[in-house]
């Protein structure tokens, strides 16, 4: 029993020792690293090397003959800072960039990396890559102007990758990415260029903006003009349609309007004719009424006045005849009486004028003065006749002596023409009214004019 226990214990110890030995001799590689087993000979691409590499796998290390080294294949960030690198044209530039490098995991670059970086840390590898890339940056800047390096960074990086690729290949490094972040200069050259170009850009932008605004305004004007033209065309079309509609309506209503107008005209004609007939009847009525009211009474009045005038005319004729006979008799007696009859007749004719002669109704102009003998109040009749004759001559301008002489000279014709009582013209005095004007010719002696009467 004790022997079995001892054997079991020995077996367990032996198994544990074997496991520990296998674990220490078995090497396992992760995907992001390469295991280098140094000490054994190996052939790589036809050449003999003293190591073998394992990537993403496992291998058994030969104890006491091989050594195990690990190389990390993950990216290494390298910051590039180049200061005072002269560009084409002699302008010093400052370049800031970032690069990512890594160790290769396959041949033939792996051999170069094993030879140069086996056993080194990542910081040391990054320092070597930084120095190499800074040198490449300086070499590329010498071929570019500051404007090209600053404006076209992609071309700058492309040239830098082309130049750095060869160096990285020889060193056993892989350049994954390279980015240039900033390109500056201490002399403010790029700043001045930027200002100039900024001014040009602003000027171009202003020109473009002004041109754009002008084009926009022109386009706006064109659009407005087109819209106005379209609106006017639409209004014109609407107006034409409205005009055509009105013309059609007018044409359709023309016959009705003509018939209506014709009916109105015929009605007016009939009304006018009826009014004419009514006015004719009224005119006949008015004429009859006028004849009954005015003409017949006036005609009767006219006949009455004519008869009255005939009676008065006959009376006047008879009176004239009587006066003519009386005057004829007077002349005969005057001729028979002799000179004294003349004086008596003159005195009889002058007696009505004594009141006018004696009275002083108006200023008297003395043209002639006759002196008579001074006698008493009972003077002779001759003196009184002379005084009266002179007074009549002064007042009326009638010389009674001359009148009597003419009457005496014409006594031989008394039988054929009776003398008038007096041929003296009447004298207009302030107290006597002027003689009435003679009646108009053609007026009836005994008929008054008809009064005017308005007849409707």
From TrEMBL:
SMART domains: PHB
SUPFAM superfamilies documented for this protein: Band 7/SPFH domain (SSF117892)
Cellular component, GO annotation: plasma membrane
Biased composition annotated in UniProt, kind: Low complexity: 443-456
Pfam families documented for this protein: Band_7
GO BP terms, alphabetized: protein localization to plasma membrane
Transmembrane segments: 6-28
Keyword Transmembrane helix appears in the UniProt entry: yes
Primary location: membrane
Domain Band: 24-197
Region (Disordered): 406-456
Subcellular location per the Swiss-Prot or TrEMBL entry: Membrane
Highest taxon above the source species: Bacteria
UniProt KW Metal-binding keyword: no
Coiled coil: 240-293
PANTHER family, alphabetized: FLOTILLIN-1-RELATED, FLOTILLIN-RELATED
Protein name per Swiss-Prot or TrEMBL: Inner membrane protein YqiK
Species in which this protein is naturally found: Chondromyces apiculatus DSM 436
